[in-house]
Amino acid sequence: MVKVNLGGCSSFIKDAEYDTSVEKALQSLDVLEAETGAGNDFLGWKHLPSETPESLIQECEAIRDSWKGKGVDLVVVIGIGGSYLGAKCAIEALSHPFAHFMGKTEAPQVVFAGHNLSEEYISELMDFMKVRNVATVIISKSGTTTEPAIAFRLIKQYLEETYGAKEAAERIVAVTDAHRGALKSLSTQEGYKTFVIPDNVGGRFSVLTPVGILPIVLAGFDIRAMLEGAKEMEQACAVRSAENPAVKYAAMRNLLYQGGKKIEILVNFAPKLQYLGEWWKQLYGESEGKDGKGIFPASVNFTTDLHSMGQYIQDGERHLMETVVTVENSNRSMTIANDPQNLDGLNFLTGKHVEECNAMAELGTKLAHIDGGVPQLQVVIERINEFNLGGLFYFFEKACGISAYMLGVNPFNQPGVEAYKKNMFALLGKPGYEEQARAIQDRLSK
Ligand code: PA5
User: Fold this and answer.
1) Average pLDDT over the chain, rounded to an integer
2) Most informative mutation of 77, 142, 176, 410 for ligand 1 (most atoms within 8 A of CB)
3) Which of 326, 332, 347, 444 could serve as a FRET partner for 278 with CA atoms 20 to 30 Å apart?
């Protein structure tokens, strides 16, 4: 269960203001539940946890087993934005970070491509592919996004040259729209196994569709437990109550935003949650940042970033709020031993768990940042596992929908993303962009 603790905000707000904000959040919840708000044709994510068929998981497991039979030890997942960040977040959170340096693992290593346009990145990834037994998953809802399309063209060519066209086709799976897009037609023509991203689920809300489910299954994790955790939050976040965790979170962050806290920093004290911050930034940034409005989402990894961003957060411009993702229990246990010489002066920690030091750093930071004028919201999970990650995914999605409606924006579109694409296409000479190319050349020549 994901819990929300707002105690770290109490000195920044008045109770009556919070109650009013909760009322607004409940009205936004009503709109989300009645499906009458802006973008209401993109609400398919709301019931994914309870409606995902077992057959979909089994289809993903069949791919996993067939690739295992071929000895595949490297899966390259190609995608960008919502077609990559959820899977990346889950796999980073659940993996032993050193497993693949330690030798062969039961599940293949999953790495990502198509989330940048760096020639060095793709070249070095292909160096790695040459010493591994490779399969790939290409994920793109539109089927036309440039970054993954370029990576896929290169990786497809490599697979065909290395394994032959027929075998390559068995090592490629596409996750895309049911009908539209270049990837859909290419997959049909080449005979790739395909999974469908439902029409009514947008990219950044798609982690619990095959976009996330397939890579997570391929990486060897328990997707059923993740869906169970999400299901628990699907129920908890549907209740029309001031105790609904999504309502609490949305109400407080919007109240703080109205009071001038324009930036929200998602904080973790567990390095495995670094990509939760990346996934969350995309979810909130693309959903809320429009029409001249929106909380700017940032993220930090503590205690690491206490030695870089800590100064600004403590002492810089006072436009910040923090949301800390607290993990109550570690999955591992290690205590600090006594050292008779005590040259490092650390014997006061003898017998303490490393995680106790982390917890005290977290509490000390909370008190210091509140004293420094940074309100703190807290999102709590018991430990990092599939169940709780599923809960976090759903909780943040539901709270995002509520928050964006409170702000008065459509959470489910992203018109601003098109601007750079149009310029890039014009600059690269894509057919149909000739006029824009001329306008850019004029502009650049001045
Ligand atoms: O949330 C979104 O819709 C976007 O971030 C998309 O996920 C991203 O642009 C990738 O799009 P596509 O899956 O169509 O390649």
Assistant:
1) 97
2) 142
3) 332
